Amino acid sequence: MKKAGILNRHLAGALAELGHGHGVLICDAGMPIPAGPRVVDLAFRAGVPSFAEVLDGLLQELVVEGATAAHEVRDANPQATTLLEARFPDLELVPHEKLKRLAADAHLVVRTGEARPYANVLLRCGVFF
Fold first, then answer.
1. Which of these is catalytic: 10, 20, 96, 107?
2. SS (H, E, C) 34-72
3. How many Å is the Cα radius of gyration of the chain?
4. 8 A C-beta contact, residue 118 and residue 76
5. Is 64 exposed, middle or buried (0-12, 13-18, 19+ CB in 10 A)?
6. Model confidence at 21: pLDDT above 90
7. CB-hemisphere CA count at 13 Å for 31?
8. 10 is catalytic
9. ∠ CA 92-80-115 to the nearest 5 degrees?
């Protein structure tokens, strides 16, 4: 049994399958999930687990070379904006509709229980060497 890191077996397994350039969408409970990508749904109740908890947990496990979020987050969710800008100084912002289209090409979607709007980010995996 693992004693540290991500304990959810479905999520840990999905992360192990990721490669350079693969997309990982971390999304709130309201984000429409596109058909196609593998989905690990962590949502338990509204707000549990939070977007911040899941994002920080995944950032401890992944090499990330880029991140994209909806520019609507700036007006609708200042807490998520602060979190994203702190984690990703080169955060790319696109219209929410474009983010939804980009999400269709993600390799993995991780759904949180986040109940605040636009708490979504599409990560692009890098390599550790």
1. 20
2. CCCCEEEECCCECCECCHHHHHHHHHCCCCEEEEEEECC
3. 13
4. yes
5. middle
6. yes
7. 36
8. no
9. 125
Q: What tokens does 9 get?
A: 């077996």
Question: Which residues does 119 contact at the CB level (< 8 Å), separation at least 6?
Answer: 27, 28, 51, 73, 77, 80, 112
- Residue identified by tokens 């995944």 is 58
- The reply to whether omega before 49 is within 30° of 0 (cis) is yes
Please give the mean pLDDT across all residues of the chain. Answer: 97
φ, ψ of residue 41 in degrees (nearest 5): -95, 110
CA 109 to chain centre: 7
Bridge partners, residue 93, by sequence? 69
pLDDT digits (tens, 9 = 90+) for 97-126: 999 999 999 999 999 999 999 999 999 999
Model pLDDT, residue 49? 98
pTM for this entry: 0.96
Edge-to-edge strands, sheet with 92-94: 38-41, 108-111, 23-27, 121-125, 64-70, 92-94
